[in-house]
Amino acid sequence: MAPSALERGATAILEALGRRLWGFPPRLMAPIVAQLGPVRALGWFVRNMPKYERTLKALGETRTHLLCVGISLINGCPYCTYGHAYAFELAHLAEYGRLFPLDEQAISAMVGLPPAQVRHQLVKATQAAGLHLDALWLDRTITLATSADHRPAEPNEERIAHLVTMFGTLNRVGRTSGAEPDEAHSPLNKNVALKLRYAVMRASATS
After folding, report:
1. How far, in whole angstroms, is CA 16 from its chain's centroid?
2. What span, in angstroms and rounded, lies between the C-alpha atoms of 202 and 157?
3. Would you say residue 145 lies in a domain?
4. Are 27 and 179 in contact (CB under 8 A)?
5. For residue 110, how many C-alpha atoms fall within 13 Å in the half-sphere facing its CB?
6. Which of 137, 158, 127, 147 is nearest to 68 (CA)?
7. How many CB atoms lie within 10 A of CB 134?
8. CATH assignment of the domain containing 194
9. What is the C-alpha to C-alpha distance for residues 44 and 207, in angstroms, rounded to an integer?
10. Are 134 and 66 in contact (CB under 8 A)?
11. Cα 181 from chain centroid?
12. What sign does the dihedral 183-66-47-43 (CA atoms) show?
């Protein structure tokens, strides 16, 4: 069935939001509208995006995208895993001036692994990168994501609890729609010089 005028309009609004934030229209927007319905989809973004943006400011892009990667891997979503893994790689390079031990392709290859393996491999790589505090955040986030109860145990866990809930919806739509990965889900995606630097460094590291 062809999308209705309301569905097309809602999709256009959300794709324009993605283009403004990240420099491209995310492929997941149309499936979100199709699965949630146009009014509910718009309302979902109104409720969740401001909280997500506040988390980005409070925790920083590197940590936030790492947590999003962990949740998306646990939920088995290739689309969100790649988008946030690439965003994490760019944020990590911008913040620390070096490459993370695993690239976005290697991280995406973890989709479908048992949660214990995901935890072990991603936490180990994070520790190897010297991000020991981030590894603790990641470990706690994975624990919350694999728990039947996603409510925070402490006040300082409210941000990660929201990420777990928010990405529960995004990951479900990503899985069921089969959306193909696109670009980095970050304003850093618009930084052409950073992306080129990252590509050159990765190529040198693998040659």
Report:
1. 19
2. 34
3. yes
4. yes
5. 27
6. 137
7. 21
8. 1.20.1290
9. 44
10. yes
11. 11
12. positive
Q: What is the pLDDT of residues 67-119, one digit of tens each?
A: 999 999 999 999 999 999 999 999 999 999 999 999 999 999 999 999 999 99
C-beta of residue 75 within 8 angstroms of C-beta of residue 167: yes
Q: How far apart (Å, rounded) are the C-alpha atoms in residues 90 and 54? A: 20
Residue 77 corresponds to which amino acid? C
Residue with tokens 């603790």, as numbered in its chain:
136
The answer to whether residue 3 sits within a structural domain is no
Q: Let me know if residue 93 belongs to a domain.
A: yes
Nearest 5°: phi and psi at 113?
A: -70, 155
Q: How many CA atoms lie within 13 A of 81 on its CB side?
A: 26
| pLDDT single digits (tens) 5-21 | 999 999 999 999 999 99
Domain membership flag for residue 157? yes
User: How many domains does the chain contain in total?
Assistant: 1
Look up the domain containing 158 and give its range.
61-206
Q: How far apart are CA 129 and CA 98, in angstroms?
A: 9
- The CA–CA distances, whole Å, from 192 to 25, 62, 142, 156, 178 equal 17, 18, 32, 35, 28
